[in-house]
């Protein structure tokens, strides 16, 4: 009876590992292309730093913090965003104001979701990807999904092994055969995950390996106090680590996800 449990475990392990191997080939191709594109091809400002560190969501969070700090938006801890100054000083600020709508007020969560898919935000990622600094968004999402599938296949093998032993009532030496056979999908999935840790895992991040080197250079500059002023230092911290670093508790609460 345990063979009926072994078959789906093996199928899930093989299919998920094949997908991850294909993703490895894609990651290697990206690494070769990135090596041909100098990082100097694109300027690394606050929004670029935010994208490399946290993707479109981080860019949106940085824009909201910047606009709130300069009195252009009011971010309420109740989860509402209100436009105070309707004149945006940049394309991204004008996009935020337009997304809020003519009423001048909207839910912050809805605004964040809409801005994360806005062309102005996605264009930042596209430029960084062309420069070899960012992992293309579809590749990043697909890589995360495939790695998760391999993990799920490994857990499925463990669950099916436990179920086969429990339902079949094996005792003593009777458990050796199923454990030996179930070790095949377990070894396959765990070995593939170890390989992914080196070859694929860097591509589950928004920044490519080259982009991650750029981010590592940003951190020391902020820690040594070389920022132009306190505002830029704070904005750099938000770009790197998100709204959790904000000293204003009400602003942190305003940027937390709200239900309802």
Helical/strand content category: mainly alpha
Report the mean per-residue pLDDT as an integer.
Answer: 84
Estimate the helix proportion, in percent: 55-70%
Number of helical elements: 10
Described by strand count, sense and barrel closure, the largest sheet is: 3 strands, antiparallel
Encode the helix/strand succession as letters: HHEEHEHHHHHHH
Q: In what range is the share of β-strand residues?
A: under 5%
SSE blueprint:
Blueprint: H1 2-35, H2 46-69, E1 73-75, E2 80-83, H3 91-100, E3 105-107, H4 108-116, H5 119-130, H6 137-168, H7 176-199, H8 209-223, H9 230-241, H10 249-254
Antiparallel strand pairs: 1-2, 2-3
Helix pairs in contact: 1-6, 1-7, 2-4, 2-5, 2-9, 6-7, 8-9
Describe it.
The structure is a single chain. This protein is mainly alpha-helical. It has helices at 2-35, 46-69, 91-100, 108-116, 119-130, 137-168, 176-199, 209-223, 230-241, 249-254, and strands at 73-75, 80-83, 105-107. A 3-stranded antiparallel β-sheet has the order 1-2-3.
